[in-house]
Description:
alpha/beta; Rossmann fold; 10% strand; globular; binds 2-acetamido-2-deoxy-beta-D-glucopyranose; GDSL; signal; SGNH_hydro_sf; GDSL_Est/Lipase
Amino acid sequence: MENIYASSLLFVMLFIATFTIQLANATVPAIYIFGDSTADVGTNTYIPGSTARADFPFNGVDFTHSRPTGRFSNGLNSADFLAKLMGFKRSPQPYLFLLSLPSGLKRHKHRGVNFASGGAGLLDVTNEAMKVVSMTKQIEQFIIVRNNRVAITGPNETETMLSKSLFCISVGSNDIFGYFSSNRTIPPDLFIANLMRQYEAYIKTLYNFGARKFGIISIPPIGCCPAQKLFNATGGCLEGMNDFARAFHFALDNLLRKISSELPETKYSLGNSYEMTINVIQNPAPFNFKDVETACCGAGRLNAETPCNRTANLCANRNEYLFWDLFHPTQNASQLAAVTLYDGPTKFVTPINFRQLAEDN
Ligand SMILES: *[C@@H]1O[C@H](CO)[C@@H](O)[C@H](O)[C@H]1NC(C)=O
Ligand SMILES: *[C@@H]1O[C@H](CO)[C@@H](O)[C@H](O)[C@H]1NC(C)=O
Ligand SMILES: *[C@@H]1O[C@H](CO)[C@@H](O)[C@H](O)[C@H]1NC(C)=O
Ligand SMILES: *[C@@H]1O[C@H](CO)[C@@H](O)[C@H](O)[C@H]1NC(C)=O
Ligand SMILES: *[C@@H]1O[C@H](CO)[C@@H](O)[C@H](O)[C@H]1NC(C)=O
């Protein structure tokens, strides 16, 4: 009897301690994450027939028990590290995973949701054939989550909670890959304008449903990923793609200035993935990278002619590589990116960094 009492008291005390620590540490009530494989923590694993997947080895080789989690990484990705930096014990879980639980979305404790889906783009048609969750669909899923919070905690509490929460979006590379592999009948500037029109609509919809703090991550120098470098005979980056990535960032910067002047109470950070990554590629030594050209997991030239899977070549020293596979960064590179977004200078994240965005009331 006494034992039961003692252990349940201990349990209650532990519970309170954990709960208090969580509340004290997290700088925002919840994080909602949208976008593509740079932020996907397992979404596509729950889509029947999706071909954009990473839920098999050697993905996850550096995760606990070398478990493949659906992340396109040897371990964690930037969405995970950002959540940790914001004071959360773990990354928000995929919407489709939560739906698969018996309790579904109806849990009182709520720290956010990850909607990101590998392969997704700003355009609904991008990688549609691979069965990914488009941005349009991701936003619809968020609205379902929001309505659920309204049902559980009421409209006022939900509104306050959402207004303080972080809405993180990392998307765009797949649209540009799609543009380059199609016949490019649209001129580049018009194509980017189309992408920005979509981006604006997504942000405004989120705003209408309560979002106020936006952490936006633009696209890296995609012409330098091993998959694209294969197409440059002299071994350099594909400059045409990098030009596109810079133009995308420039347009997104202008869009966010415009949106924040139009929508009251909006705050944002824009992470310049291009600058962050090119900075490492041009000068890898201070960051402890020894290889910024080849994929750690893959096969063929640059280890990038095939995707990563259990019969691919796996590098031994993962921390020395910038690229995990033909497209994606290693866990180590993702951590560096997250730390830079969170605490970095205006050269990499403007007008404020993610820490300032999170702590701003
Ligand atoms: C919710 O907010 C509205 C307007 O701010 C207020 O009139 C109402 O009393 C609030 N409801 C609750 C349950 O606090
Ligand atoms: C591009 O054009 C070629 C012929 O001009 C056609 O065979 C191909 O299907 C087109 N590809 C796309 C993605 O539209
Ligand atoms: C290929 O890389 C070289 C640098 O090695 C660069 O000068 C050239 O513009 C690149 N070619 C293309 C098509 O991007
Ligand atoms: C790994 O990928 C290669 C190339 O795409 C393929 O030939 C091979 O069958 C794959 N191996 C497994 C175990 O799926
Ligand atoms: C990144 O690599 C460095 C050494 O190069 C190591 O100290 C650090 O723990 C690594 N971080 C992650 C998250 O892998």
